[in-house]
């Protein structure tokens, strides 16, 4: 599903890079959005502060993903050989600026042939309202 139309940068500022990792920051102004982009590498997302955001996958008419985190939230996402991930965007639901960091594992071979669900710690909740709707149907 790679498409050159969507940037592969998972953040707006590259703050560190070597032959094994890239570290990006993604600051979001109050109500601000980071537009459609793709993840090409397995990555770790770190939130130093609390925040609430919504996400929307390309082609989804609704903002179906919800993230509510406390300081120290972490999520690891496996992209896999079949990547990149579907283009998606994120918006800040807070009335203050928030920043999180994305650590891409660029020097390691993909351990999985396919995308895997994100693995999160206990400092936040990721909700996919599309899954909830499917579960609620008889």
Note down, in words, how this protein is organized.
With 138 residues, the protein is mainly beta. The chain has a single domain, classed as Jelly Rolls (Sandwich), CATH 2.60.120. The chain is 6% helix and 43% strand. It is built from 1 helix and 11 strands; from the N terminus they run βββββββββββα. The protein has one helix at 129-136, and strands at 13-17, 21-28, 33-37, 43-47, 51-57, 65-69, 73-77, 88-92, 98-105, 119-120, 124-128. The strands form 2 sheets. Strands 1-2-9-4-7-10 form a 6-stranded antiparallel beta sheet, with no helix packed on it. Strands 3-8-5-6-11 form a 5-stranded antiparallel beta sheet. A hairpin with a 3-residue loop joins strand 1 (13-17) and strand 2 (21-28). The longest helix is centred in the C-terminal third of the chain and has 8 residues, at 129-136. The termini are far apart.
Offer a concise description of the structure:
The chain is mostly beta strands.
**Average of pLDDT:** 90
Reading side by side through the largest sheet, how are the strands ordered? 1-2-9-4-7-10
Question: What is the second-level CATH architecture?
Answer: Sandwich
| Helical proportion, percent range | under 10%
Q: Termini separation (Å)?
A: 32 Å
CATH superfamily: Jelly Rolls
Number of strands: 11
Topology:
Layout: E1 13-17, E2 21-28, E3 33-37, E4 43-47, E5 51-57, E6 65-69, E7 73-77, E8 88-92, E9 98-105, E10 119-120, E11 124-128, H1 129-136
Antiparallel strand pairs: 1-2, 2-9, 3-8, 4-7, 4-9, 5-6, 5-8, 6-11, 7-10
């Amino acid at each position: 599903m790679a498409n050159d139309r969507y940037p592969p940068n998972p953040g707006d500022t590259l703050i560190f890079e070597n032959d094994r990792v890239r570290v990006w920051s993604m600051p979001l102004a109050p109500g601000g959005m980071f537009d459609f982009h793709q993840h090409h590498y397995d990555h770790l997302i770190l939130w130093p502060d609390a925040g609430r955001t919504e996400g929307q996958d390309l082609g989804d008419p609704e903002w179906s993903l919800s993230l509510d985190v406390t300081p120290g939230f972490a999520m690891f996402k496996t992209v896999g050989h079949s990547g990149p991930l579907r283009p998606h965007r994120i918006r800040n639901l807070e009335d203050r600026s928030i920043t999180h960091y994305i650590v891409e594992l660029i020097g390691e071979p993909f351990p999985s042939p396919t995308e895997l669900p994100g693995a999160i710690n206990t400092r936040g909740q990721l909700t996919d309202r599309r899954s909830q709707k499917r579960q609620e149907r008889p």
